[in-house]
Structure formats: structure tokens, C-alpha cells
Specification:
elongated; 5-stranded antiparallel sheet; Nucleotide-bd_a/b_plait_sf; 160 residues; RBD_domain_sf; RRM domain-containing protein; 4 helices
């Protein structure tokens, strides 16, 4: 009897160990993975950067993405184009204009793909002369490096 009781106790211990391991794995599977939820501002920046990355920046060799900031909250594509043409004369726009608005309604900015560098220079010079004002707001114009780098933030143009 001692022979059979020894075999039974070992197999019983193995069975208990196996069940404990199985329960431990099930508890790990039921836990929710810890994911940090980004703020609204980070989500907005991520959407804008994804849009910039998805644009075919190499479609035209001289294409430049222009950033226009400090726009009124009620701005749309037509108003932005009319404002820029009023300030800098005719400009050649390629593709879609992306308008980003803050959730709290405080501000608005636009990303405009322009075909040639002359249009960009004209807009930047006109804004630099102080002609770009909407009421109390003065526009901010800059160039985005979205086609070459992952950073979507505007970078100041020097020498224009």
C-alpha cells in the first residue's frame, strides 16, 4: 500500500501545482493592459501629423505646406483662400486645405499645400509687412517640414 500511496501523492501534488499555474495564467489574461489616454490636444496634434504624413509631398518637386495661424474660429477653406489672395495676390494651391480648430473654440489654423516657392515667399513677405490683420488678430504664417521630418510643427523661414 505504501508503494501505491506514494505514487498517488506525487501525482496529486503535480495536479495541484498544474492547477495553480493555470489559475495564475488566467488571472494575468483577465487584467486590462495599462494604456495612457492622450489629452485632446495630443489627439489633435496626432491627427494633424497623420494627415501631413499621408499627403503625397513628392507629387510636385517645389510643393510646400504652408501653416497659417491665428485665424478666426469660423474660418473655412474659401475664407482662408480669399484672405491669402487679398494679402499676397494670386496663389497656386495644390490639393486639399486642412483646417484645425481647437475644441474650446479659441483658435483655428490651416495647412495649405502650395505648388511653388514664389507663392510661399509672397505670402510670408505680405504678412511680414503687417498687411495680414483680421480685426485685432495678426496672422502667423510659417512653413511646415512635414514631408521631410516626423515633426509637424512649423519652422521659421529665414532670409525671405
Amino acid at each position: 500500500m505504501g508503494f501505491f500511496s506514494g505514487i498517488g501523492s506525487e501525482s496529486l501534488d503535480e495536479l495541484v501545482d498544474h492547477q495553480k499555474q493555470h489559475k495564475h495564467k488566467n488571472k494575468q489574461d483577465k487584467r486590462k493592459p495599462s494604456v495612457s489616454i492622450p489629452s485632446k490636444e495630443k489627439k489633435r496634434q496626432l491627427r494633424i501629423s497623420e494627415w501631413i504624413k499621408s499627403k503625397p509631398h513628392t507629387q510636385y518637386p517645389d510643393e510646400t505646406l504652408l501653416f497659417v495661424g491665428h485665424l478666426p474660429p469660423n474660418s473655412d477653406d474659401k475664407r482662408v483662400i480669399a484672405l491669402l489672395e487679398k494679402i499676397a495676390g494670386p496663389i497656386e494651391i495644390v490639393g486639399d486645405i486642412k483646417i484645425a480648430k481647437r475644441a474650446d473654440g479659441r483658435g483655428c489654423c490651416a495647412f495649405i499645400p502650395l505648388r511653388d516657392a514664389n507663392s510661399v515667399r509672397g505670402v510670408i513677405r505680405a504678412v511680414g509687412r503687417g498687411r495680414a490683420r483680421i480685426g485685432e488678430r495678426s496672422l502667423v504664417v510659417d512653413v511646415v517640414r512635414g514631408g521631410r521630418t516626423k515633426n509637424w510643427l512649423p519652422v521659421r523661414l529665414r532670409g525671405y
